Amino acid sequence: MTGVAAWLICLNVYGDTLVPPQLIGFVAAILGMLIGSLGPQLFVERRPHGAHLATDGAGAASPDSTARHH
Predict the structure, then answer these.
(1) What is the percent of the chain where pLDDT is above 70?
(2) From residue 30, how far is each of 5, 34, 45, 47, 51 by CA, in Å?
(3) Which of 3, 17, 25, 45 is paired with 60 by a 20 to 30 Å CA distance?
(4) Per-residue exposure over 42-62, b if at least 16 CB sit within 10 Å of its own CB, e if not
């Protein structure tokens, strides 16, 4: 959607420019896809799962921890 919008805006507002409107639309589409695919990763709550916290530092579970699966 961003590519089409950028292309139409550049085509109707700026007309003949140094950079063709199709190229601007293509770049806007690529940026839109990157932001749309990578953006949600930035907004995910990044709390470690409780079972991952019960290790002794070397990756082995401590004896008093029990693995619980939901």
Answers:
(1) 63
(2) 13, 6, 26, 31, 39
(3) 45
(4) eeeeeeeeeeeeeeeeeeeee
DSSP 69: -
Q: Any idea what DSSP says for residue 63?
A: T
Per DSSP, the three-state class of 55 is strand
Distance CA 32, CA 41 (A): 15
The residues facing 61 across adjacent strands are: 55
Distance separating alpha carbons of residues 15 and 24, to the nearest angstrom: 12
C-beta of residue 44 within 8 angstroms of C-beta of residue 62: no
Instruction: Identify the pLDDT of residue 31.
Output: 92
Handedness of CA 15, 16, 17, 20 (dihedral sign): positive
